[in-house]
UniProtKB/TrEMBL annotation:
Coiled-coil ranges from the UniProt annotation: none
Protein name listed in UniProt: 3'(2'),5'-bisphosphate nucleotidase CysQ
Gene3D superfamilies from the UniProt entry: 3.40.190.80, Fructose-1,6-Bisphosphatase, subunit A, domain 1
Native source species: Streptomyces pseudovenezuelae
SUPFAM superfamilies: Carbohydrate phosphatase
Amino acid sequence: MSETFQTSDVAASDADLLAQTAIAVREAGSALRERFGEVVRYETREELMHALAANDDMALDILRPRLTSLRPDAGWVEDELDGGALPAGEWWVVDPAEGNVNHLHALPEWAVTATLVRENQPVLTVVHLPLTGETYTALTGAGAHLDGRPLQVSRTADLGLSIVATSQARPDEDEKVVRRVGSSITAMLFDALVVRVAVPATLHLLSVAAGRIDAFWQFAGARADLLPGALLVTEAGGQISDAEGLPWTPQSHSFVAAAPGVHAEAVSTLSR
C-alpha cells in the first residue's frame, strides 16, 4: 500500500505542476502576442538575431522565475538549438518563441513551449499557441490533451493516403544533412499523399498528436523542438523512433513520429 500511495502522490504532484506550468506558458504567450503583427525587414543577419533575442528575452523574463519557483532544483535549458543528453536530475527545456522567425515576419505559426525532463525522459509538456489561444498538454501516463480534450493520433494505415511533414532543423545546417533532407522529401513525394515542409517542428508534431497529420520526420534537430512533440505524440498513441526505426533519444541524429499504422512504412521510405 505504501508504494501505491507514493506513486499516486507523485502523479498528483506532476499533474498540479502541469497546470501551473500551463499558466506560466500562457502568460509568456500573451506578452509575445502583444509584439506580433508588424512585418519588419532586417538589413543584416545581426539585426535579425537581435530581434529574435528580444522576443526570447521577453518570454524568458516571465518563464524563468515562474518555472524556477515551481522546481527550484531543476536545471534550465533555453537554447533551442542545443542537443544531446542532459545531466542527471530534472531540467526545464524551454523554447520561449518556437517559430520565432515566423513571429517576426507576421506569420501565425509560432508557439511557446516548456517541458520538464526527468532523468532524460520528458515528464510533462505545455505548448501554447497565443494567436488561437490553444494549449496542448501532455503528462506521462495521463495522455495528451488540447484544452482539456483528449488527443488521438490518426488511424491511417496507408502511407499513400497520408499527409506527412518535415521541418528545417536549424539554419546553417551541415551540407550532408541538407542533402539528406532533400532526398527524403523527394522519397516522400513519391510515397505519401501530401508532403508539407515548414517550420517550426513543434506545430507539425501537434498535428500528428491530434490526428491531422499522419507522420513527421526530421534529420538532426534539438531537444527544445522535439521533446514537447515527442511526449504529445506518444501520449496520444503514436510511435516515435529515429529514421532507422531505432528508439529515439535526444542524442539521435534523426526523428520520426507517426501514427502506428504508417510508422513502419514511413521509416522504410526514409531509409531508402
